[in-house]
Amino acid sequence: MLFKNLREEIDATLARDPAARSRLEVVLCYPGFQVLLFHRAAHWLWRHGWHLAGRFVAHLGRILTAIDIHPGATIGRRLFIDHGIGVVIGETAEIGDDCTLYQGVTLGGTRPSADQAGQKRHPTIGNGVIISSNAQILGPFKVGDGARIGAAAVVLREVPPGATMVGNPARQVARRRPSAEAPPAFEPYGVTGDIPDPIARALNGLIDEVTRLRARVAELERDATAKTVSEAEAGGADAPAMRAVS
Q1: 10 Å Cβ neighbour count for 174?
Q2: Whether the model pTM is above 0.85
Q3: Cα 112 from Cα 79, distance rounded (Å)
Q4: What's residue 172's pLDDT?
Q5: In what helix (H) or strand (E) does residue 32 lie, and over which residues does it extend?
Q6: Which of 72, 89, 121, 178 is least enclosed by beta carbons within 10 angstroms?
Q7: Which backbone phi and psi does 92 adopt, to 5 degrees?
Q8: In terms of DSSP bridges, do strands 80-81 and 163-166 run parallel, antiparallel, or are they unpaired?
Q9: Which CATH code is given to the segment(s) 6-194?
Q10: Could you read off the pLDDT of 85-111 as tens digits, one per residue?
Q11: Rounded to 5°, angle at Cα 8 from 72 and 175
């Protein structure tokens, strides 16, 4: 059945957005849910060879929701698109189950050209991934299960499962190991708490190393000075004895 999973998607919205008060509110007022209605229909038409009709239905969805999902994109169950304005999902993108996307996210391709038609050009998103606002994931690679993509990150290469990526270009700043016992807690916008800056962390490491080297150089200089003084004192003590012998 074409819309058999819509109740799950409504419940996913209620579970992840405390502002949602009822299923009816989600159906009437949430563009992230509404665009999935259009996409399910457009994707069905696309898969059955009705490409123009699929594009037209997707176009209607974009006009009404400001979310652009190509009818060829494959979307899993319980996707939650929060706010949604400016989200773009390309033709060969694949999204797993229980994912969350925020406004301005792009699942795009690189080096677009006519000879790439029919080829994999867009990312594959694993299960339980959270992609924060204005993040850009560009290219035909995999974002592993449970990954977190920070706001405005630009991801250009594969992301390991459970990794947290921030920055432009995106760098891994943390990684949680998957657990079969309990799924990780939902984190709004993908990243909570203090976010370590990978560039600052590298600079701090260099500063610490320079500090250690300076301390070592100062120690060597003190040893060299003490040795010189000791040799000078020894030479001064031997001088009267040499004069007495002469």
Answers
A1: 14
A2: no
A3: 27
A4: 80
A5: helix 31-47
A6: 178
A7: -100, 15
A8: unpaired
A9: 2.160.10.10
A10: 999 999 999 999 999 999 999 999 876
A11: 75
DSSP 118-149: TS--S-EE-TT-EE-TT-EEESS-EE-TT-EE
Which residues, 6+ apart, have CB-to-CB distance to 138 below 8 Å? 106, 108, 109, 110, 123, 154, 155, 156
In contact, 149 and 137? CB cutoff 8 Å:
yes
Strands 154-155 and 142-143 come out as: unpaired
pLDDT beneath 50: ranges in the chain: none
What does the pLDDT read at residue 220?
Answer: 86
Q: Which of 74, 126, 80 is CA-nearest to residue 103?
A: 80
SS3 104: coil
The two structure tokens encoding residue 136: 């850009």
57 neighbors 73 (Cβ within 8 angstroms)? no
CA dist 98 to 128, 139, 183, 240, Å? 5, 22, 11, 92
Q: Which residues on adjacent β-strands are paired with residue 124? A: 94, 142
* Per-residue model confidence (pLDDT) at position 219: 84
Beta pairing partners, 155: 137
